[in-house]
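Subject: design request, 469 residues
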């Protein structure tokens, strides 16, 4: 173990030295080809040294586990011996007629007045064996009993060098460091890949759109066709056109870090920042797709500003904070393009969804609405179902959402997260600034829900269940 600790200290020192040299080369504004090649070599060395340090840490962790197992085994042996000796001692303290023997009958204990004390002339301090001594120590330390034979030995643990006290030697025991960063992994974005992506070369993009809001007479924005007799003039029709505008806005993140932590951290602090902002951008965009106001950000499908949102009313007499089979049936009947849709629900809704079922015939089998395949993928009424913390809590409008995300446009001005850093913003503070950004926009492109040809119930790609309070 001592050899591993020394090896770890050497690895950390070597890694810090490499990083210091690398940061010195990277700070040169116009490096020569030789300096660039040296920086590249040091960067490769840094990667290898981080891996080597991680390997040493794993070896130390394994050795610590082995040492802990040995200690636990020894403790179990001592406890077993303690129980055996306790039984034997109880037997020795009773005479042949079942009467307790006086303390004066014990040759290892002397009585002074009403107090007993250890015979200090005994080199074993009154203990028959080391096992009995350990038994007494454990009993005293756990508050079970106080053995007066231990009183003269009470100075032990106060005058020796030890690791459990910093002034007594604890400062000499190095502390371990794990190269792995603990983190709560954010939930996956199940809908980002389902939206319709529109590349943008400029911040504003106008897209012509045919007006298809009412299929009573036309499904093509007003164009009609008719049967006509020979020589009779045809009936003219006209298509209506609207416009969908995409206006990309910047989603921005900024943070500062001192040069000390950037140079001396045993793991790359920049990689921690990159991963953290990547998670934050994905989380923020998922929330905007669902709840954004459309003002300087995405227009979320569940927001009141969505002109094509359909809200399905609760059933007559339906209790608060419930979801019933009829809610799911009616949401499905109002969804345009159900074969491309997906369900999103809050975690609070899961017990309600798992209880939904359809009874087939009199005495027939029960068909559950909510199912899970062998890979753990959930399905609700035949379509994928995803739990997400960004939907509303159970009983609130938007706690369960049915959406055909192919009808949601997402304009992409910068396809990937951009990043830059500067040493000048807080130069006198010896700090570096890091910024991350992306430029995009998103909106449902439907201007209103669709009125079908032979129904008064409108259809939409985006359907929610109304409040059940």
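Subject: RE: design request

Done. Sequence follows.
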């Amino acid at each position: 173990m001592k050899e591993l600790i020394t090896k770890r200290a050497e690895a950390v020192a070597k890694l810090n030295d490499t990083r210091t040299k690398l940061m010195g080369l990277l700070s040169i504004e116009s490096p020569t080809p030789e300096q660039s090649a040296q920086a590249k070599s040091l960067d490769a060395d840094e990667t290898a040294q981080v891996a080597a340090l991680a390997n040493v840490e794993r070896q130390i962790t394994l050795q610590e586990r082995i040492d802990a197992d040995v200690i636990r085994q020894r403790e179990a042996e001592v406890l077993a011996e303690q129980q055996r000796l306790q039984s034997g001692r109880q037997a020795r303290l009773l005479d042949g007629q079942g009467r307790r023997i006086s303390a004066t009958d014990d040759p290892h204990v002397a009585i002074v007045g009403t107090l007993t004390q250890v015979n200090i002339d005994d080199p074993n301090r009154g203990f028959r064996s080391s096992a009995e001594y350990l038994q007494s120590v454990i009993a005293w330390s756990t508050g079970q009993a106080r053995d007066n034979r231990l009183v003269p030995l009470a100075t032990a643990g106060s005058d020796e060098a030890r690791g459990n006290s910093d002034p007594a030697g604890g400062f000499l025991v190095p502390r371990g460091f794990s190269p792995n960063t603990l983190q709560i992994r954010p939930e996956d974005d199940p809908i980002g890949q389902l939206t319709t992506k529109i590349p943008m070369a400029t911040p504003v993009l106008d897209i012509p759109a045919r007006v298809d809001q009412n299929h009573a007479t036309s499904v093509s924005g007003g164009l009609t066709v008719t049967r006509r007799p020979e020589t009779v003039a045809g009936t003219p029709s006209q298509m209506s056109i609207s416009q969908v505008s995409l206006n990309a806005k910047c989603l921005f993140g900024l943070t500062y870090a001192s040069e000390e932590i950037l140079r001396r951290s045993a793991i790359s602090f920049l990689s921690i920042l990159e991963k953290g902002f990547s998670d934050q951008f994905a989380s923020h965009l998922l929330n905007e797709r669902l709840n954004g106001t459309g003002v300087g950000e995405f227009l979320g499908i569940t927001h009141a500003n969505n002109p094509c949102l359909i809200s399905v009313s609760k059933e007559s007499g339906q209790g608060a904070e419930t979801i019933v089979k009829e809610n799911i049936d009616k949401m499905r009947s109002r969804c345009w393009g159900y074969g491309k849709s997906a369900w999103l629900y809050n975690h609070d809704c899961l017990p309600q969804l798992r209880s939904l079922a359809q009874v087939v015939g009199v005495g027939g089998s029960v068909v559950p609405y909510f199912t899970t395949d062998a890979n753990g993928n959930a399905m609700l009424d035949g379509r994928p179902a995803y739990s997400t913390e960004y939907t509303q809590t159970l009983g609130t409008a938007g706690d369960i959402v049915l959406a055909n995300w192919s009808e949601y446009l997402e304009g992409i001005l910068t396809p990937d997260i951009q990043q830059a850093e500067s040493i000048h913003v807080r130069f006198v503070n010896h700090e570096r600034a890091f910024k991350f950004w992306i430029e995009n926009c998103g909106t449902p492109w439907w201007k209103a829900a669709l009125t079908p040809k032979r129904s008064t119930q409108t259809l939409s790609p985006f359907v929610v269940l109304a409040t059940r309070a």
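The CA atoms of residues 125 and 150 lie 8 Å apart.
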